[in-house]
Amino acid sequence: MGEYAISTVKAYTEWKPMLTGLAYRMLGSMMDAEDIVQDVFISWEKTPQEHVRHPKSYLCRMVTNRCLDYLKSAAYRREQYIGEWLPEPIITNHNAETDPSDAFVAKESLTTAYLILLQQLSVTERMVFLLREVLRYDYDDIADIVDKSSVNCRQIFRRAKRSLGDIPEQPLTLSSKQQALVEQFTQALQSENTDQLLDLLSPEAIVYFDAGGKALAPLRPIFGPERISRLFAGIVSDAPPDYRFALCEVNGQPGAIAYTGTQVFAAISFQYCGNYIEAIYIVMNPEKLQRL
């Protein structure tokens, strides 16, 4: 019993960050990912160790199965979602020594654009793609986890890669150029300098809002620098006098958290293209901001 308790603690310490990262990429919700992983380890404690030949793969399979069950129930809720749906934002510039999940977060791309692309895949495609592309599992291990043949998994992975197309390469180390763009963006908003804002946006710029019907925000994407700058001018003019921005790393890239007083009211992440901002993702749904 003592060996099993130690094994459970070791499994939790070593694999919880990896399992949480897998579930988050599957679901787009860190809150739900953490709940699923916690539930998996509760079940793991009740599983006789001698029945498990490959603990890591076994835990991955438990997590992916629970994600599958969740997504089946979430499909209806997503159809009923008001406005654009964006992944739950996470701040990723914590100290990895004090937050073990950051050790995994820092190794892989968690950009908002990447997570949105993953949502285009079927659940099975997403599972196989993440296990292969992110966790670097071989096809035999993936086959065991998703209960399909290795040949089938290879085909599913190829199909997923084809569906996603060329995923933009985003450097995992923060670019000073990107940080400067975010600083200039927030300065332009606070100073109501529309000319400066226009200079920062690419000609194909687009902004997405996710408020889930719980905050006032556009229900559809806004396209083009001129329309975006007019929209932000109206938002800023109606903003309370104590609103401010805190610059931080959001989903692995330079971003910002917007506050009124001490209350978070938005998380902002970006997609960059050279010297310009190409996409802006603004999450205002208070249920998705609880962990910030």
Automatic annotation (TrEMBL):
Q: Which InterPro entries does the UniProt record give?
A: ECF_Sigma-70_Domain (IPR052704), NTF2-like_dom_sf (IPR032710), RNA_pol_sigma-70_dom (IPR014284), RNA_pol_sigma-70_ECF (IPR014303), RNA_pol_sigma70_r2 (IPR007627), RNA_pol_sigma70_r4_t2 (IPR013249), RNA_pol_sigma_r2 (IPR013325), RNA_pol_sigma_r3/r4-like (IPR013324)
User: What range(s) does the RNA polymerase sigma factor 70 region 4 type domain occupy?
Assistant: 117-164
Q: Which Gene3D superfamilies match?
A: 1.10.1740.10, 3.10.450.50, Winged helix-like DNA-binding domain superfamily/Winged helix DNA-binding domain
> What are the RNA polymerase sigma-70 region domain coordinates in residue numbering?
12-74
List residues traversing the bilayer.
none
Any one GO molecular function term: DNA binding
One Gene Ontology BP term is: DNA-templated transcription initiation
Q: Record's Pfam families?
A: Sigma70_r2 (PF04542), Sigma70_r4_2 (PF08281)
Question: What is known about its subunit structure?
Answer: Interacts transiently with the RNA polymerase catalytic core formed by RpoA, RpoB, RpoC and RpoZ (2 alpha, 1 beta, 1 beta' and 1 omega subunit) to form the RNA polymerase holoenzyme that can initiate transcription.
**Which protein is depicted?**
RNA polymerase sigma-70 factor (ECF subfamily)
Organism name: Aureibacillus halotolerans
Which taxonomic lineage is given here? Bacteria, Bacillati, Bacillota, Bacilli, Bacillales
